[in-house]
Design a protein that fits this description.
By secondary structure, the chain is an alpha/beta fold. It has six helices and 15 strands.
Amino acid sequence: MEKPRVLVGCPTYDGKEYCLKEYIEGLKSLTYDNFEVCIADNSRKPEYFKKIREIAGDWNSGRKQKFSVKKVGYNSDIARQRIVESRNVLREKALNEGFDYFFSLEQDLIPPPDCIERLLERKRKVISGTYFNIVPERSAVTVLAYKGIGKNAEGKVIHKTLDLFELFPSRLIEGLLATGIGCMLIHMDVLKKVKFRFVEEEKAFDDWWFCEDATAIGEPVVLDTSMFFGHNYRAWVKDKNY
């Protein structure tokens, strides 16, 4: 039986150039063999796209898996909107070219080599590995996963990040409100029904809205706490238009 075909990739822009080398090394380390790579670049200028395209050319000359790069127009000064546009370009590629899964692997994450096959073994349609973020103003490390802890007076769900001790023992945690989309495996059955979306009036990124929409169609968001991804974190400047 043929292994599921997986599209691996992410949106990017030239501000992520600092971790491009490590990202390519991480892709080369993947032990799963039935995948392709596609990166969608939404930088304002073309130089970064050209650099990634050269890397893809070198990759394609010596490896079985294909590597492609798509240039997405700089259509907004709002970073969250450009990310969504780029991610939907990847969604369309996955749907139109017969992939079984999209593995959203952000450029600043460092994957375990066997992460794809391990996530596939879980047989879930929306599943994320575990990674952490840094909150500089609190000198804190947080898990990129959120659970509901009740509702406020207006009936809205109150959420909080998982505590570190909740990750152990290693297991699947199901029914979360959201996880980061930095290392998330998504089945095409879900992508057919759910597009990535931008909500201008809210500051949340599309990770949150995707998890909300997947849950709404009856597909629980699952976190695999046995699989940790490195986060090549670097603070980025957030202006009013992020």
